[in-house]
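User: Please predict the structure of the protein below. I'd like the answer in structure-token form so I can feed it into my own downstream comparison script.

Assistant: Understood. Taking the following sequence of 200 residues as input:
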Amino acid sequence: MPLASPLQEIGHVRATLLCSGLRNKIGPSISGLRVNDAIISQGQVMMAKLRSDALADPRGASATGGAGASSEMDDFQMARLVQALAKNLGRIEALLNDPSIFPNYAGTDDEHMLDLAKSRLEAVAAGQWNILNILSETLQSNETNDLISKCDPVDCPSGGVAPVRLSLPRALTLGIRSEQHVEGDVAPAIVALIQRCLQK
């Protein structure tokens, strides 16, 4: 029985630290940051909803007062967004802090290229951390004010005072613009990594 002829090699992909870092660390980090962008867009919607619901229904119907039902649901939904964003950013941080791919000192050209891509992704992540802080501050303030406004029905038969509700749409918009500004620096560094990895 004749032996099968070897497959013709079409192209040669360099199996290097650079290619491994691109595939296993850089790529997943980019995907995570894009997922975060979608979460942040939801945060924008929630920020606007916080304001409108607080105006439409400032006080809960319960004897203890507190925020209205819509506002309480807004806090629940905002908490889910904050948790998801924080979890994703933690994962991205772990990916980009792997010393086996990103050594403390970049000695080779490949390491310099990986370090550049890493620093640009970290700049985007820093912008998203800032946005997370804005969303988290909004949530914590509203939950705290809601709790403070509640009152024992014996002491407050007509219910507690309506809580002050915080909404920071301008701060959020500025944070998003700042993050989007640094996003444009990522693509050139990634393209350079891909081209180097695919060199024959």
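That's the full token string. Helices lie at 17-56, 69-96, 109-149, 169-183, 186-197.
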